[in-house]
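Pipeline run #58 for the internal structure catalog. This entry was flagged by the ingest filter as a single-chain record with no existing model, so it goes straight to prediction. Upstream metadata was stripped on purpose; only the residue string is passed forward. Reviewer on rotation: M.T. Logging verbosity set to normal.
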Amino acid sequence: MHMNKEHAYADLVSRVKKSYPTVKDLENEEGLCFYWFDDCEEINLWTYWQGRGNLDAHIMLVGQDWGCPWDPNYQPTIEQVRKANKNDEYNYLSNNPSPTDENLVKLFKELDYIITRPCPDLFFTNLVLGYRNKGLSGGYKKAWAKQDKRYFKELVDIIEPEVILCLGRSTFEGVLSAFDIKLSPSIKNYNAYIESSSNPVSVTLENGKTAYVFALAHCGAMGTLNRNSKKSTDLEKQLADWRKIRGYLK
């Protein structure tokens, strides 16, 4: 890893942190708002799972937003983050209640990655870099990513991944928007698009190299149900989708 990557990444994290308000009193806030979470010293809390120090990662995984780090359900995960900040041994998945993360462990096995341990080739982030003051998921709005898409593009140009894996339609379209790409005609059937020859979309990085952006179903409960046309929550179709990624990895 080049030192200029480390400096660029640290500067990016600092600017993103300053772009969000720091929450003072969650109880006094009405409605859904986004803040920075002070214990996050990386670009995103998901980066603590895979990505710390991995600024030359080959695969970047992108979700919508992390959720609410103040929620009682996620305090075991936050305790692991605090351990990491002190350079103590930690396990991001310890007592982690997320079905999304549980399914990702199964999906990454299709790419021969065991993500229950650190993998230097992987970098995880969300497109929205702030954190909900309440609620863990649902109700995603494209407008949430508008202020962060320029930061996301900087992150991609720092890491220079070979492939970018997008969980869900909104994430996929948001990532393409960061590269000033709008699909025409617009996607009418996301499941059909995932299976089509249009997937992945190639983008040009700042270094002139090509990265491949994959449209994938979100692997949370609702995303999996949608991938199966509301009929089941098994991962069979998603596992097949992920197998196609293998041909784009060097």
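catalog note: The chain is about 30% helix and 10% strand.
catalog note: The chain has a mean pLDDT of 91.
status: ready for reviewer M.T.
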